[in-house]
Design a protein that fits this description.
Layout: E1 18-24, H1 30-47, E2 56-61, H2 69-78, E3 83-88, H3 95-112, E4 115-118, H4 126-140, H5 146-150, E5 152-158, H6 164-181, E6 185-190, H7 198-205, E7 212-217, H8 224-239, E8 244-247, H9 255-270
Parallel strand pairs: 1-2, 1-3, 3-4, 5-6, 5-7, 7-8
Helix pairs in contact: 1-9, 4-9, 7-8
């Protein structure tokens, strides 16, 4: 539901003409779409305790679900809102957050005469590390001695992207969790697009001879990819019966996650936050192996699938991004498929 603005003594009438748009990727999974709606509800509740001057809030999706981002923007405009803060509901700055959503928002600005300010994704910070740590500790139990962790291998599974900058953030999170909790060893895997995938990673992990393995999907919500990750763990459990495999839960809208989103909203207003990490962005810097995408035009690749739901039509969806340079890597890159 839209959030009605509350009057404050310092707010001007112009402030109340501002709206917030929470931008989601979308999913074929009904549970993932519902969980994104729960996040939106949690943010609305958080706004009640903080004097943000939003006349209304909406959320929309890039693909696979409705409302689309365009439909959500139109809902805000229908309420007379001409200034909009857009918040990407995504973990890391990869192609969707760097290109697809900004391009869509910019086109909407030009076509409808509105002003849109764009926040940065959640990224890595202390709050997100706390949220990830809690999920891992919930999986193994809070009462475990340090020796338990020394005998345990951690596998952190990221979404996987054709952007090495975003992939490296997952690897950084793995290292932070490794050092924070004192695991015996830790490995990073990905659910698709890049390498290594989950199954070959677990195969490799077995050579390290640990008594147990914790698999933590660093995802915001559930969905088909989470199901496939857990299926790979189940297959490993049957194959290596002498090893204990533990499935940790994805992040969901924990308090630390909601607090991080709120911090990103504050950054829009204050201008304190860097909009994106451009130091190793393949679109702005010459990254070895990704030279073909240096200086590429920022354009959305999702205009042809906006609003496509979870039916059969969505299975025909494909991206028109540049060819990933390691598409033939023996340990992965193709998105996991059943069978």
């Amino acid at each position: 539901m839209p959030l009605e603005a509350r009057a404050t003594s310092t707010a001007s009438d112009d402030d109340f003409a501002r709206g917030l748009l929470l931008c989601g990727h979308g999913s074929r999974s009904a549970s993932a779409v519902a969980e994104f709606g729960n996040l939106f509800t949690a943010l609305n509740a958080a706004f009640l305790d903080v004097p943000f001057n939003y006349k209304a809030c909406e959320y929309g999706f890039l693909e696979f679900a409705r409302p689309t981002l365009g439909e959500a923007l139109s809902r805000l405009c229908a309420r007379g809102i001409k200034k909009i803060d857009a918040l990407p509901g995504m973990l890391l700055a990869a192609g969707h957050a760097k290109n697809d959503i900004p391009a869509l928002l910019r086109n909407y600005e030009l076509e409808h005469g509105v002003e849109i300010r764009y926040a940065r994704p959640l990224g890595l910070d202390a709050r997100m590390l706390c949220a990830a740590t809690r999920r891992v500790q919930d999986a193994v139990g809070d009462d475990k001695p340090q020796s338990y962790y020394h005998d345990t291998l951690l596998v952190v599974v990221g979404r996987g992207s054709s952007d090495p900058d975003a992939n490296s953030d997952v690897a950084k999170l793995t290292r932070l969790l490794w050092e924070s909790l004192g695991f015996g060893w830790a490995i990073t895997a990905y659910s698709g697009v890049t390498f290594p995938l989950v199954a070959p990673t677990l195969e490799l992990a077995m050579r390290l001879d640990f008594r147990r393995v914790v698999v933590f999907p660093y995802f915001l919500f559930s969905g088909i990819l989470i199901e496939r990750i857990y299926a790979a763990v189940e297959a490993a459990t049957k194959r290596w019966r002498e090893v204990e495999f533990i499935k940790a839960r994805y992040l969901d809208c924990q308090a630390d996650v909601v607090d991080t989103f709120m911090a990103r909203v504050r950054e829009i207003e204050s201008g304190d936050g860097a909009m994106m990490n451009c130091a190793l962005c393949k679109y702005r810097e010459l990254v070895v192996g990704f030279e073909a995408e240096h200086g590429a035009a920022q354009a959305s690749h999702h205009h042809h699938v906006e609003g496509i739901g979870m039916g059969e039509a969505s299975s025909n969806h494909h991206h028109h991004h540049a060819q990933y340079p390691h598409a033939s890597h023996p340990m992965g890159v193709r998105t996991l498929k059943k069978g």
